[in-house]
């Protein structure tokens, strides 16, 4: 398949941790893959932001499971093109899975343009909804 995004990351977001997998490169044979796990406190989300910026990531994808994606999205939305994916549509094949493999799977799907974006209202509308 053709690589559409050369610098992307997949985030596997949970209540206590976020696993980020960055994929960098235009061809599969020279692909650079880096994975890091971050806690979900605000200071750690800013560490995640810095980690992604240090790798010149342009696009990010994450699942929209529960409410855990919201603070991550709110902090990263001004810096990256974020794809919020429906979890049912990007499920990996059944079997042994880990947070690291899920983050890599999400990054690979994004890299090839295989994730459909879920609608996320603008920030001002989200603030009204929170009220």
From TrEMBL:
Residues 9-131 form the Transposase IS110-like N-terminal domain. GO terms for biological process: DNA transposition. Pfam families: DEDD_Tnp_IS110. GO terms for molecular function: DNA binding; transposase activity. InterPro entries: Transp_IS110-like_N (IPR002525), Transpos_IS110 (IPR047650). This is Transposase IS110-like N-terminal domain-containing protein.
